[in-house]
Design brief:
alpha+beta, four-stranded mixed beta sheet, three-stranded antiparallel beta sheet
Length: 265
C-alpha cells in the first residue's frame, strides 16, 4: 500500500468522500481538482497501482468509501459486476463453478467468478476480483436467485435448478459431465416435482444435446412418461450420436431414441 499519500492524492479522496462517490470517471477528477488531463491520468494510474482504487474499464474507477488501513483495497465481486454491467446497460448472472459451490453441489471454492452476461466476453480483473465473462444471447439470461451481501448490494446467481441445466449444457466449459447427471439424480430423488421444472428450464435455456442427455437420464431414472415426452417431442431428427459421457472413449451402447452413445460402462 502507498504509505504516505501526497497532497494530490489526499485531495482526490477528500473530494470523492465529500461527494460520496464510489465510482469516478476520468475528466470529472481533473475538473474537480483543477489539474490537467495528463496529471489526472498519472494520478489515477498511481492510485490503481497502489491498490487504493480499482480500474473497471478505461476512464472508469471504483473508489473505497474509506481509505483502507494497513493494506490494499478491492471492490467486492458484487460491486465489480454491478458497475461493469450497469455501465454497459446489461445484465449478468453468476454461473458455473461459483453456483455449483453456492448450492452445495461441489465444495471447491473458485478463485474466478464466472458470469453469463449480454455484453462482455473473456477474462477481466477489477481490483482483486477475477472475472470470466461469458457473453450469451438475452434469451439465455433468466431463472435467477438474488443474494443480498453484507454491504447491501445484490449478487445475481443462476437458480439452483438452472445451474443443473447449465452444468449439462456448458459441460466442456464447467467440467459439468458426468457430475451433472449425479446431481440431477440426487435432486429428483429428493423432490420428484423438480423433474418437470428441469424439463421446462431445458426447453427454455438448453439445446438439443441437453434435451437428449436429460431425456435419456430421466428415462433411465423412471421419471413419469408424461414428463419425459415433453423432451422427446422437441427432438430434431438426426442420425448423429452424442456421447453420454464426453470424457470417456466413444464406445458403448447405441440409444437411437435419444441419439445417445451410452459409453458410461
Amino acid at each position: 500500500m502507498k504509505q504516505n499519500l501526497g497532497k494530490l492524492e489526499m485531495q482526490f479522496f477528500a473530494w470523492a468522500q465529500l461527494r460520496k462517490r464510489t465510482a469516478v470517471r476520468a475528466g470529472d477528477v481533473g475538473s474537480a481538482l483543477r489539474i490537467t488531463g495528463k496529471q489526472e491520468a498519472e494520478l489515477l494510474s498511481r492510485l490503481t497501482r497502489a491498490g487504493l482504487i480499482a480500474r473497471v474499464k478505461k476512464g472508469l474507477y471504483l473508489v473505497p468509501e474509506r481509505l483502507p488501513l494497513g493494506g490494499k483495497w478491492s471492490p467486492s465481486e458484487a460491486l465489480a459486476l454491478k458497475t461493469l454491467t450497469e455501465e454497459a446497460g446489461g445484465r449478468y448472472q453468476i454461473c458455473g463453478p461459483n453456483a455449483f459451490n453456492r448450492y452445495g453441489f461441489d465444495d471447491q471454492i473458485p478463485t474466478v467468478t464466472y458470469a453469463y452476461n449480454n455484453h462482455f466476453s473473456g477474462t477481466r480483473r477489477i481490483g482483486s476480483v477475477n472475472l470470466s465473462l461469458i457473453k450469451v444471447n438475452d434469451k439465455r439470461l433468466g431463472a435467477t436467485d438474488s443474494v443480498k451481501t453484507r454491504d447491501g448490494l445484490v449478487l445475481v446467481y443462476s437458480s439452483r435448478l438452472r445451474t443443473l441445466i447449465d452444468a449439462m449444457y456448458d459441460w466442456s466449459r464447467f467440467n459439468g459431465l458426468p457430475r451433472a447427471c449425479d446431481w440431477i439424480r440426487e435432486e429428483i430423488g429428493k423432490d420428484s416435482r423438480s423433474a418437470s421444472k428441469l424439463v421446462q428450464l431445458t426447453l427454455e435455456y438448453g439445446n438439443q444435446g441437453t434435451i437428449r442427455r436429460l431425456g435419456y437420464l430421466f428415462e433411465r431414472e423412471g421419471v413419469r412418461p408424461s414428463v419425459v415426452s415433453k423432451l422427446k417431442d422437441t427432438l430434431n431428427p438426426s442420425s448423429a450420436l452424442i456421447p453420454w459421457d464426453p470424457t470417456r472413449p466413444k464406445r458403448g451402447k447405441t440409444v437411437r431414441t435419444w441419439g445417445i452413445l451410452d459409453n458410461a460402462q
